[in-house]
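Quick entry between incubations.
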Amino acid sequence: MQEILYSGKRVLCEEGETVLAALLRHGLDLPYSCRKGTCLTCMVRAVDGTVPEAARRNLKTTEIERGLFLACQCVPVAPLALMPVRDAENFGRATIRDVTRLASDVCRVVIRPATALYYRAGQFINLRRRDGLMRSYSIASVPRLDRDIEMHVKRLPGGEMSGWLFEQAEHGDEVGFQGPNGNCFYIPGRSDQPLLLIGTGTGVAPLVGLARDALHAGHAGPIHLYHGSRRVEGLYFNGALHALSGRHPSLHYHACVSGEAAPTGFRSGRADEAAFSDLPDLAGWRVYLCGYPVMVRTAQKRAYLAGAALSEIMADPFDLRDKRATPRRNAVERADVW
Amino acid sequence: MSEASLYERLGGAAAVDAAVDIFYRRVLADTALSRFFDSTDMDNQRAKQKAFLTMAFGGPNTYTGKDLRQAHKPLVDKGMNGSHFDSVAGHLAATLKQLGVPENLSGEVLAIAGSTRDDVLNR
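Done. Structure below.
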């Protein structure tokens, strides 16, 4: 018999009983469906204790890093404290430090959390204005290298949050944030593994952080970063990325223009097309895809068919969703981001 | 003394893990089949393939004929028929061959997979 703590409530798990079965037996509400470890609905977060290997078998390495496991597959062998993934995501306070234009419709927003945020480069946060308006933004900064949290915000026509950030937000304004969220981040340990990063629009923001994080960690394998936009101006990080790849020979930066003539130094065509044409065999690669949802989903399939293991493909589609229309658990709207 | 189960002889969960990537990749790359796999959630789809392979490998599963019928009904409505089923079975056979599974064992796996035919095709 093992003791488990679920959001502070004490539950005793019978011999051979799963965490899910024990919680349900005690009348605690936890979403679940297949009870076979397939549907991943009953994913919860361990905050203390040991999680048996079997409870993580179907999860991505990035989910495991975040302490997630499947309640239906977990027969505890030691005391365990856990909580719903949602509850682990409380709001923190931060102040705006800087808003700078990177292009006519992209700005860099820098915030400083009141207490240090533990995150990984490439994850995203939900930024909340004082009146409650909330949008998701990927993080472009790296915790070990940057004191503040930096985001790249695309201005959308009629976008409430992006319009406010562009026109009104000022140094010192207080905002709330929830996070970090997302599985698009670098994991140290396989230093020679080649990495493929494809981002469109502001989808490059998490990839810049991820690449800097990997380089800082001493990643030795090649890192190919493809940034795509319809217009040259949309490749707003061109200068910074050329400078970064100049300092790090293992970083290969490809600027891809798909909607107008490509000047010298730019590739013509879509970023994903360029990447898959350059790199037909992705067996053993780790692949990160961020930005325009159609690109992300198409590229996920193509990367898989090109030989990358599905568990090694991290996809972060910037879906434009109305929060009120997405009651699905853990669904997060990516409203202003690309 | 009881004989080891098919699942154990194949190598259990590790064998399923090895097979699922090869199998799902083959099925997705098959242009005759890919239209039945155009849903966007690849992780979810792969999880389903894994559940299917676990069953075909004689492993622990709680699939029932009713589950298989319900799950495949929308695909049958989209035109999935016996030739598609046979193509998938062919990819399973090729996957087992690529993994070097002995013929007597792969025969058992293919027989289990084949036994789902009527339920999958909603006949």
